[in-house]
Amino acid sequence: MEEKKGIEVVISSIACRLPGNINSPNQFWALLKEGRSTNQRIPATRIAERDSLIRGEFNGGNVPVEGGHFLNFDLARFDANFFGLSALEASALDPQQRLLLECAWECVEQAGCNSPKDLEQCGVFIGFMSNEYPDLSEQQGNALQMLGTSASAFSGRLAHFLDCRQFFGDFLQILDKLSFKKFFSRGPTLSIDTACSSSLVALQMAVEAIRTGRCSRAIVGGVNLTLTAKGLAQRANAGMLSEDGCCRVFDVDANGYGRSDGCVVMMIEGVPIENLEEKPHWGAVECGHDGRSAALTAPNGLSQQQLLARCLERLNPEKRRSLRCWECHGTGTPLGDPVEFLALAKSLNSCGLTKGVWLGTAKANIGHTEAASGLVGVMKAREEIP
């Protein structure tokens, strides 16, 4: 579809839940300025098998892992009645969806959407990756576990909440419908699982939907929770995790990332250029895939460089030359960091920069929120850019 001319995409509101008692963008920015880390020992209240994970004995043996980044409130805390759910339905609902509901509602309120007409042309785009709650729900024997934990329910639940009063459960395709139950959205609703890039791909698709007129605004979200020892052990045995949970980004001692809880939801909308005023807006958003690389999960430097080049080409030459900061993926892995750094260096060197560029990544502070990490980076960059 052809892009509408004279439209820029702006951020209307942001809501978040991050480790370190971070419940707003301002609190997140304060943590970054103070240089604090949210890394902690895996809480036994979250992972009952913590001690066997630390000893490397979980399920017959695993690479030891003892640290990470966790939300410090009870994930069962949820106002089911407000969202039109019974206590039984709420207990079967993946906690990741509970977080999305709460943050999406905050975004709707902050953006001043208090009339059904405000969301008639609103899309919903959710980045989602891990689905560990079924392992816990099976133990509960809940009759609603099929609806409450199946990954196929995640894409419609947000829009469903704001759009009607029915309950469709926890399938991936309805997750983004749930938060629209009290409103009347008729925009596109999608759930995206592209692993760690999920929320950024969701953002890219939302921006394109607005620019091509498929919707006038969109809720974009990403969510991630560490719920089981199995999820930690799988990543540790794959060589992904740092044993102590620290992300040593661009460091000679980089040895993997620390898993992190997190949820970030944004309301974005299309605004005529003449009405932009001082609102932050997108210069360019692009996504791509590595294609063939050394292994399925191995990064491809050339593909990354080509993607960065496409994104930079969409900026006018003056903006390219004046770049001052760059929020990186930067997971703290000995393979991924050098590949990303080299691709970025080659891309930026072709921009004719007038000054040096500061590189950063929020993962050094709050760990890797996986599917939500892209929007965490966007939230940070939004504060960095005056």
TrEMBL record:
The reply to whether Hydrolase figures as a keyword in the UniProt entry is no
Organism of this sequence: Meloidogyne incognita
Q: Name one GO molecular function term.
A: fatty acid synthase activity
The cross-references to SMART domains, in alphabetical order and at most eight, read:
PKS_KS (SM00825)
Which top-level group of life is the source organism from?
A: Eukaryota
Q: Which Gene Ontology terms describe the biological processes this protein takes part in?
A: fatty acid biosynthetic process
Q: Which family does it belong to?
A: Belongs to the thiolase-like superfamily. Beta-ketoacyl-ACP synthases family.
**CDD domains xref list:** PKS
Record's Pfam families?
ketoacyl-synt, Ketoacyl-synt_C
Q: Which UniProt keywords apply?
A: Phosphopantetheine, Phosphoprotein, Transferase
| Stretches assigned to the Ketosynthase family 3 (KS3) domain | 6-386
Any idea what this protein is called?
Ketosynthase family 3 (KS3) domain-containing protein
The keyword Phosphoprotein appears for this protein: yes
User: Which PANTHER family does this chain map to?
Assistant: FATTY ACID SYNTHASE, SI:DKEY-61P9.11
